């Protein structure tokens, strides 16, 4: 009696891995895009102020037609390994859906093989860290099929830094203190009203 159940579980698991449960992996992507970004190696950019100009296109040494399935490109800002250390929420995972290396979208555009460029002002809420830029090419099913990045495969070269807006933490702290004070007052008010309601219904 047990064998069929075991078989069912195994085949369910297998079909799960083969289709829905396991998506595109980074290691399966071809590095066919050439990506450059304006920051120089080691440059420090100020969040909310500095601009990054990214250019991308098909690497000219790649065989023509390789990009026939490419439909869109997403350019992203990505954490270098040094800024991922001890931060599980920025972890690199081979399965693309779970990967947290590149959390910030710079731009998404229809794919064209050359002359692509975009200038992005580093958003105000980007945390201090060491970064690089990566572009993904997607097919018509919105699955990653290729990539390119401004650093080498080990993500060691040509990294730049972003410095968060100073004073942000101070204002956030004040905001959260105000918010807690507001919550306590609101909560107290709520209990007071509930209590008086209770009294009112007892009097009836
Ligand atoms: C373009 O592709 C060639 C061959 O794969 C590679 O050696 C070269 O580094 C690539 N260029 C860029 C800028 O990625
Ligand atoms: C970045 O670009 C914006 C908009 O074009 C401009 O106002 C700003 O001065 C630029 N920042 C720097 C540091 O050049
Ligand atoms: C790319 O830009 C260059 C210079 O502006 C131009 O000569 C070339 O024709 C452009 N290529 C494409 C495919 O648009």
Written overview of the protein:
The protein is an alpha+beta fold. The chain has a single domain (about 15-165), classed as Sandwich (Immunoglobulin-like), CATH 2.60.40.2550. It contains two helices and ten strands. The protein has helices at about 1-20, 170-204, and strands at about 30, 35, 45, 50-60, 70-80, 105-110, 115-120, 130-140, 145-150, 160-165. The strands form two sheets. Strands 1, 3, 5, 6, 8, 9 and 10 form a seven-stranded mixed beta sheet that branches. The chain has a three-stranded antiparallel beta sheet with strand order 2-4-7, with no helix packed on it. A hairpin with a 5-residue loop joins strand 8 and strand 9. It is globular and about 75 Å long. The site of one 2-acetamido-2-deoxy-beta-D-glucopyranose has 2 residues, from loops.
Which architecture would the CATH scheme give at its second level? Sandwich
Write down the Rg: 25 Å
Shape: globular
The CATH topology label is Immunoglobulin-like
Helix-strand pattern, N to C?
A: HEEEEEEEEEEH
- Let me know the average pLDDT: 84
Roughly what percent helix? 25-40%
Which structural class do the helices and strands define?
A: alpha+beta
Whole-number count of domains: 1
Q: What proportion of the residues form beta strands (DSSP E)? A: 25-35%
DSSP summary, beta strand count? 10
Q: Largest sheet, described in full?
A: 7 strands, mixed
CATH class equals Mainly Beta
Bound molecules: 2-acetamido-2-deoxy-beta-D-glucopyranose
